[in-house]
Amino acid sequence: MKLDAAIQNTVLREATVVAGEGAMNREITWVHIVDHPEITNWLKPGELLLTTGYNWPVDDEACRVMVRRLSEIGLVGVVLAVPHFREHFTQAAIDEANLCHLPLLELPWEIQFSEIMYDVLARIINIQAETIRRSDHIHRTLTEAALEGNNLEGLARALHSALDKNALVVSVDGTVLGASDPEVSESNERVLVKKLTELQSLCGFFEPNTPKVVVEPAGRSRLGGAIRLRGEVIGIVWLYDEGAEFEELDVRALEHAAVIAALHLTYQRQLSDQETRLGYAFVAGLLEGKFSATPSAIERAQVSGWSESRGYRVCLVLLNEPIPLSLEGFDRRTKMADRIAKTMQGLTIAPLMSVSLNQISFLLPAENAPDAIWRSVRSEGGALAVSRVHHGVKGMAQGAEDVLALLPLLKPGKLHDFDEVLFPRALMGDSDARRLLIEKLIEPLGNPKRGNALIDTVLTLAQEGFQLINTAKVLDIHISTLRYRVERIESMLHLSLDNPEHKFKLQVAAQMYVLAGDDT
């Protein structure tokens, strides 16, 4: 029980604080009554001293020495019953106590010391009993989460249930592995982790191995505990809440949760390693559309470094090796896969890869350009196919379809982007390419609420050879309105109608859109 709480909730509310007001958060472990001449021989740290002042020194210097000695012992404070033997603490004692940050309280003589002892100690015992009860509840809740839960979201929810504070588990790059709050922002978590690691590693930040309070950019405090595995920090467990004050129980619960999370992630890593040994099964399942998106499977994927909400390009390296591979071909493929993995790790990208025959597939985050990977493999005579940006489980399978469509067009030593060959394939009559070209250049202009004004504008522009005056007449709109629409079209499609190549592609896409409508 802290001294300020004792003053608020016990008979000590009748006392007057005369010194040490800035040190009222000290923890009381015992209440001691001493009026012995050698008072310091009978006291221990954490005790609250009750005295009548009968043997309290009168001389100013002796008072100062007494206060310093009591402060050095580690007393919580001194309560003096007034005015029977002493009217007040001496000014010398008050001045010294303020210097030593030792609380001094003056209590009316009528209040019995036995009443104070009973009231304060009873509350301390009740607090300890409640702490034991809450500690047992936390222990049971987290143990049940460890035994019955199959993902870290269950652990976060268990922490929230036990402590009534939001809980969050993230990887070392801020990827959310489990959260009690479904509205948590993964991008914000990535920014926070990046900020923490600007000056030192997470291992150094959480050294010594005790939870730390971190202040977010928005000013909210959160308590974080490192998830460690063989001395390496592999994640963080966070506790946070608006206006939250963290207690010792929060710290202990967080330490317990970090151990459970470490065991859980170790298990997931073992599964992931096993999948890698079995032939990159996780990535292969994503690309083949056979990935079962269960909560535990999604979490295992996140542990591997994949995020369902993140955009990725599917990349495929086609080795210049005949099939079936020779022993030397197998060896070259292994070395190439290792080189790609090391290049990705050097760029702090999780090496999410799959190997099959003379092909090496990998997932590249949308914010990373494929050129860096390409530079590490082009000298071997292979070719690299790059898909459009896709999200989620279904998106990875679509990305695989993109690169498979590029396979017949790949040339050794060349990097081929899906968008680069989409238009030629559409012109050659590929129905899938025509559909994708329409999806890319026409369909984004449609608006379910506002209609298809922009699509009609593109179709008319293409029909009128992109002559603005003629187009405005056909659409029966003012030329300024048309120019506004053209600007929106250019912005939405990321092209310029001043570019002849862009105009040609848009004109072809518009005609294909019209033909597709006629067919239906």
Automatic annotation (TrEMBL):
Boundaries of every PucR C-terminal helix-turn-helix domain copy: 454-510
Domain Purine catabolism PurC-like span(s) in chain numbering: 7-124
Domain of life: Bacteria
Gene3D superfamilies, alphabetized: PucR C-terminal helix-turn-helix domain
Pfam families: GGDEF_2 (PF17853), HTH_30 (PF13556), PucR (PF07905)
Start and end residues of each CdaR GGDEF-like domain: 293-402
Family (UniProt): Belongs to the CdaR family.
Name of the protein in its database record: CdaR family transcriptional regulator
Organism: Pseudomonas endophytica
